[in-house]
Amino acid sequence: MDDRIFVRTKRHRRILTVCKEAEAIDALMGELPGETCEHCIVSFCGISAAAFVRWVSDNTVIRHMDLVTFRVGPRALKMLSGLHAQGRLGGARFVVGRLAASHHRHNVEREYWDRLVGLCREFGWQACAINNHAKLILFDTDAGKFVLESSANLNDAPNWEQYVFQQDGDLHRWYAAVVDEMFAYAARIDGEPSAQPEDMPSLADRSEPMRALSWGEPRPALWGE
User: Does residue 90 belong to any structural domain of this protein?
Assistant: First the structure.
């Protein structure tokens, strides 16, 4: 067997643009999936969650988007602002990790939260911060309701990531109810005081974990059904 030599001449950071990544998604899927198709993708440092938002907005108008992530990157925020200005993105709700909103003096994530809150107040969006590490995007669009489950935060970092993208109205509604419950545990950032009832303890005072639910279970009455 021949010897193989690998020479690394210089370590460098790989930077991808959201537009190029959206083109890669288009090459993989071609069009938005129908209700009978589920796309499972493993990206080898080539597709970000922000690119999925851009790609969906290229194919249809996003009436409303629910986004659950640990944090939202600055370039992703700029992209969302641009989509809203173009009329491609309407309403939005964001659930991020509590670290992003922490006032600790060594918290480097705080700047991302402050920028997000600024956009929410400008566009009438909503955001809350809880102990969150889930990654999920719900799209309510002119072409239907879509769900993106992934390992990626909403940024344009070229990491190895996995995605499951599908059109499923029932799954969209189920996840949307989960987002409703997340907001019920945290103050809503929309320029108004906290939406929490007075008898609901603050997130810092809660000792019991949030309920764990499986897809396919009947949703509990506390969700208003």
Answer: yes
